[in-house]
Specification:
- The chain is 6% helix and 37% strand.
- With 171 residues, it is mainly beta.
- The longest helix has 10 residues.
C-alpha cells in the first residue's frame, strides 16, 4: 500500500539487541543536541547490532535512484529503492540524512539479527505529510499482513508513534 510509505527525513538509525537505560537514551538524544550537520560524537555502543548513518561515506549510489546504505556495525547493508540522489541526501541531525518521498525505501533484508528478542530502535525522524492512517518508519515484518515475526515502527495519523512486535502472527 503506497500510502504507507514514509514521507520525511530519517537519520542515524540504530538497532540494539537490548533495552537501553533511561540515561543511555538521554545520552543518545544529547549526542545530536549540540551539532546539526556535524560529525557524530560518542554514542552508546554496548549491544549495538546495526547502525545506518546515511552519511556520504556510508552510501554508495549505483544510479540516480538506487544504491547501498552501509551498516557501520554488523554488515547489514541496505539496498535503496526509489531514493533520489538529487533530492534525498539532506543535512541531518548528525552529518547527512535521507529525505524519503513517495515510494522510496531502504530494504535491509530478512536477517534474524535485526529482530532480537530484546530490542531498542533509535533514529532521528522528521515526518512529512502522509495520506493514510499510518506511515512506516521501520518494518521488518516480512509479508503484507504482518503474519511473520518482526517489528513495525510507524507514525499514526494522530502523530503518535506506534510500535508492533509480531511473534508467529500475533503481537
Amino acid at each position: 500500500d503506497s500510502s504507507n510509505y514514509f514521507n520525511g527525513v530519517i537519520d542515524e538509525v540504530r538497532i540494539y539487541g537490548r533495552a537501553l537505560s533511561v540515561s543511555e537514551i538521554k545520552g543518545l538524544y544529547g549526542t545530536g543536541s549540540v551539532i546539526v550537520g556535524g560529525a557524530e560524537k560518542t554514542a552508546v555502543k554496548s549491544g549495538l547490532v546495526a547502525h545506518w548513518t546515511f552519511n556520504g561515506n556510508d552510501v554508495v549510489w549505483s544510479s540516480g535512484t538506487a544504491g547501498t546504505v552501509y551498516d557501520r556495525v554488523g554488515g547489514y547493508n541496505g539496498t535503496m529503492g526509489n531514493v533520489t540522489q538529487a533530492g534525498s541526501p539532506v543535512p541531518g541531525k548528525l552529518g547527512q540524512a535521507f529525505h524519503f518521498r513517495s515510494s522510496a525505501y531502504v530494504d535491509l533484508g530478512s536477517s534474524s539479527a535485526l529482530n532480537p528478542s530484546n530490542v531498542t530502535i533509535s533514529a532521528w525522524v522528521k515526518p512529512g505529510d502522509f495520506s493514510g492512517n499510518y506511515t512506516y518508519i521501520y518494518s521488518n515484518a516480512r509479508d503484507c499482513c504482518d503474519n511473520e515475526d518482526g517489528i513495525n515502527v510507524r507514525i499514526k495519523s494522530n502523530n503518535k508513534v506506534n510500535t508492533q512486535i509480531w511473534n508467529s502472527g500475533t503481537f
